[in-house]
Amino acid sequence: MAVTVASKKTAGAPSYVRTPAWRFLASLPVDRRLARYDVAGSVAHVEMLGKVGVLNGDEAHALALGLRNVWREIEAGQFPWRDDLEDVHTNVEVRLTEMLGPLGAKVHTARSRNDQIALDERMFLREAIHAVQDHALRLELALLEVAERHVETLMPGYTHVQRAQPVTLAHHLLAHFWRFGRDVDRLTACFPRANVSPLGAGALAGTTLPIDPAYVARRLGFAATFQNSLDAVSDRDYLAEFLFDLSLLALHLSALGEELVLWSSTEFGFLKPNAELGSGSSLMPQKRNPDVAELARAKAARVTGDLVSLLATLKSLPLAYNRDLQEDKAPVFDALDHVLGTLEALTAAIPTLDFDTERMAQAASDPRMLATDLAEHLVSRGVPFRDAHETVRMFLAAGHPVDAKSLRQFSPRFGDDVAQILDPHTAVRRRATPGGPAPEAVKVQLAKAREAVGLAQYALAKHAEIVKAVDDILQEEST
Fold first, then answer.
1. 155 by DSSP, 3-state: which?
2. pLDDT in tens, 237-296
3. Are residues 276 and 238 located together in one domain of the fold?
């Protein structure tokens, strides 16, 4: 039987990571991003081992102190990362053993890399959710502030990218606001499902040692512990849910970006050139392109691809842990970074947008956009809606000037007050039903929007208290 000799590179590595395929198996370039959570989780773990008597007090104290020293090296950029050690967990453990000698080998007592990585991911995810919510709320507030300045600003509303009915700019921006509000709500709902500690599940079947998973959970700010050890180490629902939430948020950012692109075009002319929205052309001096908005569209494709990548990885995996799950982190990190970057860029651009309100009002003043209002005018005079719809359609198809005199000549069913229908400002004010574009209805929306932001900020503050547990552990002095 042939015996594989470890390469010189892997000679100092633990036996479980020694293999000629170490380069292929290594996840360190990706998962070293989890070092902060890995060290904090290990501190809580050794503290627990000390409390239940698996370690004595001196051992638990020395391990906790050593782990915090490891973190200080990482934070200072002085940690000796080794690719041949496969992952962040083994790097931390080997370095701790270098510092403490044989005692360092006790850090991994009663746990597996399987429940360890699940723990790291969940701590990371709590902070990721908090960061996205924070950035999304800032964008919502930016939209609100612009909307509050444009309650009376007319613009065309569109269907099929064709002018449909007059609305206000505030009403249009609030439509985007409510989308982002639902994105924040989804993330709020995702948080408690992520906030469950898997540590103690071991490789798949727990441990024979007398551990206390609830202690670790409390120490790290988790609301609960796992119910099933097989599920705890194989579950990646929390990552899939988060990526779906990010994908939908990215789609909403893309939709906002698309409208900014359209409005910046000469054909629309609703937005004037803006440095915060993009850069100029390397060739054409007259150009300033809405690059930020364009990239917002493209980032949505990338984030959606990240979601599909993770779902395809998870498809058909048997219980419990499989090495396929090593590929779960890269799409999450990628999607998070691109969503946060897009949120930052759009949040910076929105307050600086320079609207050509005269051009928008002119575009909203096409009387043909009031065709529905004319039909409803006839309905108010007792005409069945389908008859009213056909009357207005035939009038417009005949090419008549859209004015009161021509309407009354076409059909005596139009009243003497039909001229009022043809004023776009009046038309918008008359659309005062709840959620409509009338200034009074928009003011109600704005008040509700401010209230929704306040509630979301309260939830965000609660999340901040939980995620703070990681820094608290790392910054404590071992006593």
1. strand
2. 999 999 999 999 999 999 999 999 999 999 999 999 888 888 877 767 677 889 999 999
3. yes
Mind giving me the DSSP string for 294-307?
HHHHHHHHHHHHHH
Position 394 in a domain: yes
The predicted pLDDT at position 426 comes to: 93
- 297, 250 contact by CB (below 8 A): no
Q: Kindly state whether residues 305 and 237 are assigned to the same domain.
A: yes
Both tokens of 345, joined, read: 């860029």
Q: Which domain holds residue 426?
A: 366-430
CATH code, domain carrying 68 = 1.10.275.10
What pLDDT does 311 receive? 98
How would DSSP label each residue in 350-389?
A: GGG--B-HHHHHHHTT-GGGGHHHHHHHHHHTT--HHHHH
Q: Among 160, 279, 309, 406, which one carries the catalytic annotation?
A: 160
C-alpha 308/C-alpha 251 separation (Å) is 14
Identify whether residues 175 and 119 lie together within a single domain. Answer: yes
425 belongs to the catalytic site: no
> Quick one: pLDDT at residue 5?
41
CATH code of the domain in which 408 resides: 1.10.40.30
Is the pTM above the cut of 0.85? yes
Is 281 catalytic? The answer is yes
Are 196 and 281 in the same domain?
yes
Q: For the chain, what percent of residues have pLDDT higher than 70?
A: 96
Q: Which of 281, 365, 377, 400 is catalytic?
A: 281
Give the containing element (helix H, strand E) for 256. Answer: helix 237-264
User: Please, is 195 exposed, middle or buried when counting C-beta atoms within 10 Å of its C-beta (0-12, 13-18, 19+)?
Assistant: buried
Q: What is the pLDDT of residue 278?
A: 83
Widest CA span of the chain, in angstroms? 103
Inter-axis angle of helices 113-148 and 439-475, nearest 10: 150
Q: What are the residue ranges in the chain where pLDDT is below 50?
A: 1-6, 8
Number of structural domains (the chain) is: 3
Please name which of 453, 367, 409 lies closest in space to residue 180, comparing C-alpha atoms: 453
Q: Which of 84, 81, 113 is nearest to 20 (CA)?
A: 84
For the chain, state the CA radius of gyration.
Answer: 30
CATH number at residue 139: 1.20.200.10
Residue 274's pLDDT is 87
Predicted confidence at residue 275, as pLDDT, reads: 85
Q: Please state, in angstroms and rounded to a whole number, the distance separating the CA atoms of residues 365 and 363.
A: 6
